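Tokens help. Consider this.
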Amino acid sequence: MSAPFTFATAGSIRFGAGVAGQLGEVVAGLGSRVMLVTGGSPERTAAVHGGLDVVAQHRVGHEPTMDDARTATAAAREAQVDVVVAVGGGSAVDLAKAVGILLVSGRDPLDHAEVIGKGEPLPATSVPVVAVPTTAGTGAEVTANAVLASHQHQVKVSLRSPAMLPRVALVDPELTLDCPPQVTASSGMDALTQCLEPLVSPMATPLTEGFCRTGLEAASRGLRDAFLHGANLEARTDMALCSLMGGLALANAKLGAVHGLAGPLGGMTGAPHGAICAALLPGITAANVAALEARDPQNPALGRYREAARIITGVDETEALIGWLNETLRVLEIGGLAEMGLTTGRIDELCDKAARSSSMKGNPVVLTPEELAFVVRGSL
């Protein structure tokens, strides 16, 4: 018998080639004073948002920070914005969600931030947010949080509330066709990680397990091909689906030690989130399997790791999964953590920060500081 569970997601999800063309119609039903949040090159997506009546705009060409949230929210408030539209990668979508909720809160983002802030509850409502992702990675279009970096604390943390779920998500694989190979690689590995970690999470449910399986199947077909042949719409569609499935899963079943380490590591080095996840995923997978076999051999996560191996490789063995992950890093030309700026002298600091991360709650087994440090050293 299944345990009780709840499930929450965006108010409406529209998926498929060409759905971005519905943006004007969607926005018209939500508000008339639009803030547009984009990546660093809004001209790339001008055909999508060019028809909107925009009264405020914010570009974010990097992973968003607390200062970005403050600046964008102040501009939106001054312009009396009543709907926020994000057209861009996960950074743009996360910032838009932060703006939407902070417009209602009226507080500083640190007042609500996890770990480093006061952690005060966010409002029960948000200014409506419409999310149009242009990368296939974070699944932020269907998650109830926004990740913000604090340079002061050298860490990335979340604002989190069910009210932050976008009102509408338009997931159009055609928007990812011109995504550069390096971004395709790192965002794609993030999407894959966000299907594997919720699958083995102790908070997994029958619904999230189904999303994870579908996402892993899509990644096994499309990840390498989207990197090698960027104009292949079928591969791009697979990865957009993988990203969406991962977002649906993680929002309801949490993540694990890969993201527990990736948050503080991104804050410490400034390296791309997806690339960090990619470098850590094989080692964390191996460490989790070893710890489960030694300390909790009846844990259902072991069977789910074997299931993931079967979905991706056709072989019902965790070694096959780990081998496939390592080979994929080679194909995608993703290097180790040392190339991303981590030095051996900061490993203990990283593991100490990771231990306080909310993502660690979704790991299928508690990894010791020594086990975490071993994984990090092996991922350099």
Observations:
- The chain has a mean pLDDT of 95.
- The longest strand covers residues 54-59.
